[in-house]
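Thread: "does anyone have the structure for this chain?"

Original post by V.I.:
We have the sequence but no experimental structure in hand. Need at least a predicted one for the grant figures.
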Amino acid sequence: MSGSAGLILSSYAAAPALDGWNPEAEAALLHAAARLPGVSGLEIPFYPTGQLHKYDGDWFLEQVRHLPDHLAFVVTTIPDTMSRLDGSADFGLASLTAAGRQAAVARAAAAAGAVRTLNAALGRQAVLAVHLYSAPRPVSHGVPAGSAGTGPLAASLEQLAAVGWDGARPVLEHCDAAKPGQTPVKGFITLEEELEAVTTSGTGTGVAVNWGRSAIEGRNGSAADRHIGECLDSELLAGVVLSGCAPVATRFGEAWDDCHVPPAPVEPASLLTPAAIRSVSAALESTPGGPNSEVYRGLKVSAPRGSSVARRVGLLSDSIDVVRAAGF
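Reply from O.Q.:
Generated one for you, C-alpha cells below.
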C-alpha cells in the first residue's frame, strides 16, 4: 500500500460534542474535517444508545448524507464497550462468563445494525470496518476485575461471523494490555492472545494497531513497531491508527493517557514523532501487493477542551500535514 492512500480521520475525538451539544459547531467541524486534503474517510463511534453520535443519531445520519460521496467509514465500539464495563466488570467478547460474553456479542450485533442503517442512509456499503475490543479487563487500576481468555474471544468472533455486517469487516483494535506494576488505561488482553483468538476462530477477522495505545502499554515509542510487525507476520493486519501519547502531562491530557495527543511538532511532547511515523510507513511498505496490502491508515487527534471550531480544524489539518510528510 503506498503512502498516497487516504486517511481515515477520527475527527470525533476533536469534536465540540465532547464539551456539550452545539449542533452548529458540530456540523461545522464534521463538514470541514471530511473535506481536509488527504482524508478518505471518517472513524465514527457507536454509543450505548445504539446511535452513531453522542447526542443525536438522526441528526448525524442527516449530516452524513451531505458529506463527500467518496468517504468510507470505520465504526469504533470503544465508547459502548467502556460504558458497559462501568456497569459490569465481566462484559466483553473475551469474557469467561457466559453472561458477559453474550452481552458483548449482542452489543457487537447492535453495532452491525447501526452499520446497516448508515449504509441504507447513504445508499451504498460505506462502512469499511467495525472496531471491536477484547474486554473485559483482567485488572482494573490494580484491582482484579473480569476474567478474559482467548477461547471465549474466538467463540465470540465465530458467533459474530454470522451477523449481517453489510460489507464491513469486524476488526479487533488492540488496546494497552494489563502489565504487572503498571496502571493500565484500557487494560485488555495481550496482542498475542488476540492474534491467537483470531487465528483459532478462522473467521477472517482483522486486527488493528493503535500507535498510542501500544506506546502506553510499552511505555515507549517502539512498542507499536513490534505490534505492527507481529500483525504483519500473522497476515492479520487490517489497519494502523496513528494516535499519539506523551510521557508527561500536556494540554491534551495526563501522562501516558489515551488522550489522542497530536504528533510532534504539533504537540512537542508527543512520542509520535516524524521519525516514529516514518518507521510505521516503512513497515507498511515492506509487503507491497501482499496479504497486508489493503491495510487502512487512520489518524486520531483530540483537541483541548473549550477549543474553537477553527482551532479544532487547525489541529486536524496540522496533524495531517505531519503524517503525510512522513509518508503515512
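V.I.: this helps a lot. The first strand starts at residue 7 and ends at 10.
O.Q.: and The CA atoms of residues 204 and 316 lie 32 Å apart.
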